[in-house]
Amino acid sequence: MWDLNGMEYYWGILPPLVEAFTLWIANTSSMFPYRLLNALVGSLTIYVIYRIVLEHFKSKALAAVASAIATAWPSLLIFSTYGLTETLGIFFLLLAVFYYNKRDYVFGVLLGLASMCRIEFWFLALGLIACYLLFELSVMHLTPALAGWLTVMLPYILHIRAQTGDPFYPVYWNFFGTVLRQWEPQYALTWDTIFYRTLWLVVAGASVVIVLILMKRRPNGYIVYALFLGYLFFQGVNATLSLQGALVNVRYILDRFMMLDYLFLSILLSLLFLRMNRIKIPRLRISIQLVYGAMLVGLCVLAYASFIPYHAGQEEMKYFHEVSGWLVEHYEGGTILCNIPMLNYWLIQDGIDGRNIVGTIYISHENSATAREWLKSHDVRWFVLTKYSFDDSGGFYDFLRLSGESLPFQTEYERDMISILSVS
Amino acid sequence: MMELFGREITVSNSFRLVGVPIGIVGLSLLGRIIALACIPLDPYWDRVE
């Protein structure tokens, strides 16, 4: 919710509402209560995984192994303690899968709640609802599920339409803004990114083929496979089309977007474990299971070893806090123009009223006179200019610079990626 | 009659019905509390960006 400066209708509405509720309940501006809630929701998700596996694959051992892997896997564990939106969305998504073919309306409502957390879950939710038609050929199941999804989503879509004029605003901007990167300079095609794109294209194609085979065979737990394969297909298409560097980078495997994939991996690894029970020689079976268990522990340790260096360091957060500290020290009223969520967070923690922080996305990028007038009418006194590729501040600065008129900014503070400019 | 995930709760199965979810959620939560203690300042953004 600290990234709502012009992004109000881009992000899913439910997590910011829940976070706002935790701030109100705890009477604080700290995100810690929301992180604690996410930790609890992440833990409940592990139990939902246990129930889903038990329900669809009818094996307690399989459910126990899958939930044990999901409990220990670093990206599932650590990301669910952050103030992110995925944790809540994944919880609703998996809970919906538990209710598949049981309570169709509840299934749809839960998918609607998941869709209100993450835009990609709109596609996944509708895909899962379509499974009633594709796998069961049942309109009787499909209709209440779709009604459940619409019960939640229709007011949300109407709200977005009323505010932006486009009922599918977040879908549109997630595709054109994020995937096709209209908001950033075009990403250069290099051999390594072509390699990763090809890999993702193969993954997307393989996912479709496997879903088609599943439709023919309808094995136990097909809805579980459909969810995760559907997500892999979505990721594959996104990464293949994307001009965003992050999606075609090997470090993507450490990213929060892989949380659903790792849940899938925990189920697949547990299925493999269960297959060993078919080995008829007891000693051989136990030996192989022990080796497999040791491999899983080793894999988990390796995952922590590669994951933690990127996440355990707190230097970047301290850096943001120190930068915001300088600004708070020199602040004497007026509006601060800042797009960086963590800086906004620290500014508010250090006493700046949130209403005095606005983003450059609110300002016209086409008419420099209008933009300058906007700065004056909103009493903007400070401008946080950064070199981060995802930040619009550089684009706004260049737009004013290219207008040819003298800039109303004076650099007062510079540190690494961030400059703080006074506005006259 | 009380139900949990569609199953009737009786005295004989209540421990198993309640023990398993509490055990799984408790262990998962323990790991997350440790992570919260180790990473007190929320990085918020993933590092891929």
Describe the 3D structure.
Chain A has 424 residues and is mainly alpha-helical. Chain A is built from 17 helices and five strands. In chain A, helix 7 runs antiparallel to helix 8. Chain A starts with 13 loop residues before the first helix and ends with a strand. Chain B has one helix at 11-38; strands at residues 3-4, 7-8. Chain B has a two-stranded antiparallel ribbon. In chain B, strand 1 (3-4) and strand 2 (7-8) form a beta hairpin. The radius of gyration of chain B is 18 Å and the shape is elongated.
Fill in the keyword field for this structure.
heterodimer, A: 424 residues, mainly alpha, 2 domains, five-stranded mixed sheet, 17 helices, 65% helix, globular, B: 49 residues, two-stranded antiparallel sheet
Strand content of chain B: 5-15%
Q: Which sequence of strands runs across the widest sheet of chain B?
A: 1-2
Q: On the 0-100 scale, what is the average pLDDT of chain A?
A: 89
Assembly annotation: heterodimer
Average residue pLDDT of chain B: 75
* Largest two-chain interface: A-B, 47 and 27 residues
Helicity range of chain B: 55-70%
Count of beta strands of chain B? 2
Count of helical regions of chain A: 17
- Rg from alpha-carbon coordinates of chain B: 18 Å
Task: Report helical residue fraction of chain A.
Answer: 55-70%
Report the sheet-strand fraction of chain A.
5-15%
Overall SS class of chain B: mainly alpha
* Strand element count of chain A: 5
The general outline of chain A is globular
Cross-sheet strand order for the largest sheet of chain A? 2-1-3-5-4
User: Which residue ranges of chain A are poorly predicted, with pLDDT under 50 across at least 5 consecutive positions?
Assistant: none
Task: State the domain count of chain A.
Answer: 2
| Class from helix and strand fractions of chain A | mainly alpha
